Amino acid sequence: MDVILIPGFWLDSSAWDDIIPAVRAAGHEPKPITLPGLKPADPEVGLRDQVDFVIGLVDATTGPVVLVGHSGGGAVAHAVVDARPKRIAKVIYVDSGPLGDGGLINDEFTAVDGMVPLPPREEFDDETVVDMDDERWAAFAARALPIPEKVATEKQVLSDPRRYDVPVTVITCEMSEATLRELMAKQHPYVAELAAVKNFEIVELPTGHWPMLSKPAQLAALVAAALPA
Q1: β-strand 168-172 against 200-204: which pairing, if any?
Q2: What are phi and psi of 45, to 5 degrees?
Q3: How far apart are CA 118 and CA 199, in angstroms?
Q4: What is the DSSP letter of 165?
Q5: CA separation for the pair 41, 145 (Å, rounded)
Q6: What's the rounded Cα separation, in Å, for the pair 199 and 62?
Q7: Backbone angles phi, psi at 66, to 5 degrees
Q8: What are the C-alpha distances in Å from 169 to residues 91, 93, 182, 197, 201?
Q9: The 168-172 sheet, strands edge to edge
């Protein structure tokens, strides 16, 4: 089964290098991607352009597909599920989750000429940068690619309730499972879309927001374990 690996903000397909062997060992075909708008930089690319790009990849395959979405890539993955609910066997969200209709990924970043560079580490919350020591952060900053502002600020558009039929695994890093479930119990809008999914599980990987950089071996094992048999 093809496993499309969708990176989060500021990352390209190489973010999944340490995860690919585990996916292949589990009997699946990893398809790491770089989303449009990063290489080359294009400030005209919006969230829907990235969604349509991944839809095209799904349409080019035969058989069911698994989507793995990290961070902002989770919003892309969910919109693809909405567009092709019968083609997606499962979605794995890596420190991410399904973004509901009308939602924005993040409209608080500072853009330069329509592109958002990686902010300095001190602008992130402490829990976001757990395990990202000076060496890891420097390596991240050296590889980071600015992302189009429109991707972060364009509204999510969803329409097919069959998206809730697709099973989900959330690998949560910055929040505990207990915290996520407490938010769902309180009907917090952050987790409203996840709460509507009929079949989901939450798995903890305590680290910062970039587990492929801070705990790649552990992330690889959890992704492999979440893949369909």
Answers
A1: parallel
A2: -75, 130
A3: 34
A4: G
A5: 8
A6: 24
A7: -105, 140
A8: 6, 6, 17, 11, 5
A9: 29-32, 2-6, 65-70, 88-94, 168-172, 200-204
Say if residues 222 and 203 touch (Cβ distance below 8 Å): yes
CA–CA distance, 208 with 71 (Å, rounded to integer): 11
Kindly report the number of other CB atoms within 10 A of residue 152's CB atom: 20
Mean pLDDT on 32-46: 98
Q: Partners of 19 in the beta sheet?
A: none
Place of tokens 């989303």: 35
Fold designation for 2-226: Rossmann fold (3.40.50)
Q: What is the pLDDT of residues 76-116, one digit of tens each?
A: 999 999 999 999 999 999 999 999 999 999 999 999 999 99
SS3 state of residue 72 = helix
Kindly report the length of the chain.
229
Q: Please say if the pLDDT value at position 220 is more than 90.
A: yes
Percent of the chain topping pLDDT 90: 100
Q: How far apart are CA 216 and CA 145, in angstroms?
A: 20
- Please choose, from the candidates 69, 70, 64, the residue with its C-alpha nearest in 3D space to the C-alpha of residue 89: 64
Enter the pTM of the model: 0.97
Residues 190, 98 contacting (CB under 8 angstroms): no
The SS3 assignment for 67 reads strand
CA distance 100 to 93: 14
